[in-house]
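Every protein is a chain of amino acids, and every chain bends into a shape of its own. Below is the pair of lines this work produces for a single protein:
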Amino acid sequence: MSEADDRFAIIATLDRYSECLDTRDWDRLRDVFTEDVDMDFGAWQEQGCENVTGIIRSYLDGCGPSQHLLGNYRIELDGDRASSRCYCRVMHMGKDEHEGKTYETWIEYADELIRTEAGWRSQKRIGRAQMHQGDPSLLGPG
């Protein structure tokens, strides 16, 4: 693959994360992360794709629709390894007793990726919220 092909493939992997979360396609997160992924979101840390998926679900299964928009990709390639940073702006809508409420957050993701036989996968992600507004209580157990 050319360097440009690798960059596009990495961006597609990062974007797939947003698609999985917004469509609640939890099984497809295996197309984003390695099985032993190490995730650090500050408020929580977890290892392993299954465990990380469970934590993410604990937040999103309890809210209504969400939209994760990624941009400002900064990618550094090193053979079969890469590091990336990107911004993510997320809108969450409330449901049930939280109907009409919203919660918006601005996050920066820092990923360490490896090339696998199945394509690029994130082996480590650090996510840090930069700003937020609204009612975070709409996130939580479904």
Strands lie at 33-40, 45-47, 66-78, 81-93, 102-116, 119-134. The chain has a mean pLDDT of 96. Helices lie at 3-23, 49-60.
